[in-house]
Amino acid sequence: MNGNSLIPLVVTDKLAETKAFYTDTLGFSVSIDMDDYLQIRCGGEGGPELAFFRTGPLLGVGQAQAFGGRGLVISIPTPDADAMHAAISERGVKPLSAPSDKPWRWRSFSVADPSGVVLDFFHVLAQSAALDATG
Fold it and tell me: Do residues 48 and 41 lie in contact, with contact meaning Cβ atoms separated by under 8 Å?
């Protein structure tokens, strides 16, 4: 783990389901796995990480409430958003959207994890394709 990384921490009452979703369905790896804390990584060493904490007392914060499933989107780079969409769909996950080109030069689609965190899988478009997406 890189001590200078930004690692979002989501409080959830669905830690076991979350671990299965990220590892079995998405193919992420586990960085840290404890009774009340899970940290997963996308890609190899140094890849982006996301952490989850079981609902309950959170050190230094008090009682942690579960994420309400609204207002959080995490963008995750992937080599090919269309291929990722197909792979996730084959594993039984119903994406929230189909892959589409965005004006900010991304092709992306989204899914929700068991806690309601929206994951936006994207790849960067070539400059000419990005210009076509705005028109």
Answer: yes
| Residues pairing with 40 in the sheet | 30, 50
Q: pLDDT digits over 7-34, tens only?
A: 899 999 999 999 999 999 999 999 999 9
> Helices in the chain by DSSP H: which ranges?
15-20, 81-90, 127-133
Q: Are 7 and 39 in contact (CB under 8 A)?
A: yes
Q: What is the pTM of this model?
A: 0.83
Do the domains at 1-57 and 69-135 have one common CATH topology? Answer: yes
Q: How far apart are CA 134 and CA 118, in angstroms?
A: 24
Domain at 1-57: CATH architecture? 2-Layer Sandwich (3.30)
Per the CB < 8 A criterion, the answer to whether 108 and 75 are in contact is: yes
Q: Rounded distance, CA 90 to CA 128, Å?
A: 31
